Automatic annotation (TrEMBL), chains A, B:
InterPro entries: Homeodomain-like_sf, HTH-type_TetR-like_transc_reg, HTH_TetR, Tet_transcr_reg_TetR-rel_C_sf, TetR_C. GO terms for molecular function: DNA-binding transcription factor activity; transcription cis-regulatory region binding. Residues 14-74 form the HTH tetR-type domain. It comes from the Bacteria. Pfam families: TetR_C_11 (PF16859), TetR_N (PF00440). Residues 37-56 bind DNA. This is TetR-family transcriptional regulator. The keyword Transcription regulation applies. Keywords: DNA-binding, Transcription, Transcription regulation. The keyword DNA-binding applies. It comes from Streptomyces griseus subsp. griseus (strain JCM 4626 / CBS 651.72 / NBRC 13350 / KCC S-0626 / ISP 5235).
């Protein structure tokens, strides 16, 4: 399971990084972004704060990497993946089925208690702090949205999506309702809801002949 | 313009209430929900803090009423309205046109600099504080969403909306993308975007014969 033998210091670094990520996510979920400090993360991770200052320029950078690490581990747990990042959304030739699979997985992630508090804390901070929000959108959200664009373009080429639909807008019809319901907690976020969003969005709300 | 003559003390109360609302909205926009205090609101409004404690049970209650007052004033400014709250969304018989009108107005409201900071501060707080979030959804958001349900039901009766579509889900396809774009600042929130959301949602993303 470990094809390359890392030197001890590198293994120690990996362990420390992981401990720092976990401490950062736990803390921001518990006390919010504002009250999370480098000192607090260091104490919780059992490392010196100089270790954190040496590796990251800011608290935001630590958290960004912690979320990226989390996304990476979630991918590992759901099985092997190729190096082709664009395969984030499967293409079985059935657009509705593929989108339902991805949106249901998103529902599961959003409902995961371990992720909920830090994700809410960070999203809330980005909503009031434009600079931090822009950074998280650029580094965390946009790469995910690009996967939708790729899948929707393929659907367009296959004639499954209207030729005049802008994939960048179309994806917001799928993601927007999900996030709105989750962020504002208006109603329960379920697989049935994810399926309905896909069916309504693809089929449209006006009657078809 | 003032059909009933209010006694002096009532007029003074109205002035104080308005000053307190404005102070609360300004403060929460500037320093966030957590750091907004009854004392701070009182000082800014030029009233004693006992005045606020006498009229409202909590800081959240002051802000809730301030937002409700704001919504009321926005309605006054856009012209006369009947007592029928359900007429919030016009019914001209053209569903697409009516929805575009309402979503464009929502875009304008969200882009209004005077509303932006307090709305962001309160939304962000509701995202991390489930109790406060639920209160704002119940008192501020749900009554607005009910107007969409009413309009979409009428469209359903007129055959303009699929009979099998749930209006409560359908409205999230319209509101969700707008709020997602505004909250996360992914891309500019424009009238053209509001129009596209209506067209895509009603027509659907898959080709029609």
């Amino acid at each position: 399971m470990a094809p390359t033998k890392a030197p001890d210091s590198s293994r120690r670094s990996d362990r420390s990084r992981r401990a720092i990520h976990e401490a950062a996510l736990a803390l921001v979920g518990e006390v919010g972004y504002q009250r999370t400090t480098i000192e607090g993360i260091a104490a919780r991770a059992g490392v010196g704060k100089q270790t954190i200052y040496r590796w990251w320029p800011s608290k935001a950078a630590v958290l960004m990497e912690a979320f990226l690490g989390l996304a990476g581990r979630a991918d590992e747990e759901t099985g092997p993946r190729s190096d082709d990042a664009a395969q984030g959304i499967p293409d079985t030739g059935d657009l509705a089925a593929d989108l339902k699979l991805v949106l249901r997985a998103t529902v599961d992630e959003l409902n995961d208690p371990a992720l909920e508090a830090p994700t809410r804390a960070l999203t809330a901070e980005g909503i009031v702090d434009a600079k931090l929000g822009a950074e998280f959108v650029a580094k965390l959200l946009d790469p995910q949205l690009a996967l939708y664009v790729t899948r929707l373009r393929a659907a367009q080429e296959a004639g499954e999506l209207r030729a005049d639909a802008d994939p960048r807008i179309a994806l917001e019809l799928l993601i927007g309702p999900l996030m709105h319901r989750w962020l504002l907690r208006t109603l329960p976020l379920t697989h049935a809801y994810a399926d309905a969003i896909v069916d309504y969005t693809l089929g449209g709300l006006t009657p078809r002949p």
